[in-house]
Amino acid sequence: MMQIFPSSPCVGREVTRMMSRFFPHHTRSAALACASALCISVVLSGCKDKPQGDGAPPPAKVVQVPDMNRITIDGKDVNKFPLVAAEKVEAAAELNATGSVFPDVSREVPVISLASGRVVDIKARLDDNVKKGQLLLKVQSPDITNAFDAYLKAANDEQLAEKALLRAQDLYQHGAIAQAMLEQAEDTEKNAKADLTAADEQLQTLGVDKNHPSNVVSVYAPISGVIVAQNVTNAAAAGVGLSGSATAFTIADLSTVWVVCDVYENDIPKLQIGQQAKIRLNAYPDRMLTGRISDIGPILDPSLRTAKIRIEVANPGFLKLGMFATATFTSLARQSYALVPADAVLHLHDRDWVFVPVAGNQFRRTEVHAGPMISGNRQQILSGLEPGQKVVANALLLETAGNQ
């Protein structure tokens, strides 16, 4: 009806006109009365569905959700779950940090050939263990030819200068020449000796034996270790030139390595240079190593807010570069922790829980951070439980009973 009679001042007249079609003229007053009643009905029907009040939403309903961590036990069965009070123990705080194994840069030595030229033979490869003095590669170099030529010329000039000096000394003794000419001959002979010495040292620098000259020079390992980088390949033997400043190999002495860890900014004050650290490797979880902090990075990562902690570790032989490791640092200060029986700790969903009595026959499952085991089948609680608090002695038994 709201669609037939719009809300307007003419609605009464329209209704009267329509009703007049059904009533004679002498009953027009009756039609007017029916139209009035019909308008009132339309208004009432239009207002019937309007919301009451000021339009505010209905009040929120509170739905009680059961606490999944709370367990209720029948009163007669409460005695089956005895309580124990957490003991107090003082222990040094521990800090764990993850890191990787890196070489000690002070034990990395580049292998270079001072003679530039063509690599004609390679005796070692990447990842090889080499000994000090071991032959690594051979280089055919024109530098050796030029150096040996300079040595021969210097040797000839020195011989000639020596003969000239002997002749000048003999002539001077017989008064045939002046002293100035003798001094000039002595100077020439000294200069020739200096040139010969320099040429000889140049050959030694290039690794050439002057008594057995060759245009091929051998390059040897300067230290014992592992080849961790190689910049020459078999292609170099086909004619690729090797510059005198290029690094052919890099040898690292891995007898001592670094474990570099990331430690957050707020944990840095807990560490100091020389502090001991226990190292566990992901590849060998049963083998624990010991190292010492040799450096605390002075620069923080701006995004992670961490500093690099460098730990020197003696390599027993199985440490490999790039291995993931976990370092445990022990604080010098001791703190108080709670200590409970191991059965009081429930390991569920990769978390640790204990049951704390709430009221009467109810117990709440509380998450804790469990620490190391201690003698007597007891476990240290690092956080989540205070010494003196009571917990259920057998958490697994209560968890099973609550699930039934």
CATH architecture descriptor name of the domain at 71-90 and 335-403? Beta Barrel
Radius of gyration: 49 Å
* Average pLDDT, all residues: 81
Largest sheet: 6 strands, antiparallel, barrel
Oligomerization state: single chain
Overall strand count:
21
Order of helices and strands: HHEEEEEEEHHEEEEEEEEEEEEEEH
Tell me the strand order in the biggest sheet.
Answer: 3-12-15-14-13-16
Helix-residue proportion: 10-25%
What class, by secondary structure content?
Answer: alpha+beta
CATH fold category name of the domain at 71-90 and 335-403: conserved putative lor/sdh protein from methanococcus maripaludis s2 fold
Stretches with pLDDT under 50, minimum 5 residues: 1-11, 22-28, 30-35, 42-50
Shape: rod-shaped
Helix count? 5
In what range is the share of β-strand residues?
35-45%
Terminal residue distance: 62 Å
- Name the CATH class of the domain at 71-90 and 335-403: Mainly Beta
What does this entry show, briefly?
This protein has 404 residues and is α+β, with helices and mostly antiparallel strands. The protein has 5 helices and 21 strands. Among the domains are: 11-47, no CATH class; 71-90 and 335-403, conserved putative lor/sdh protein from methanococcus maripaludis s2 fold (Beta Barrel); 142-214.
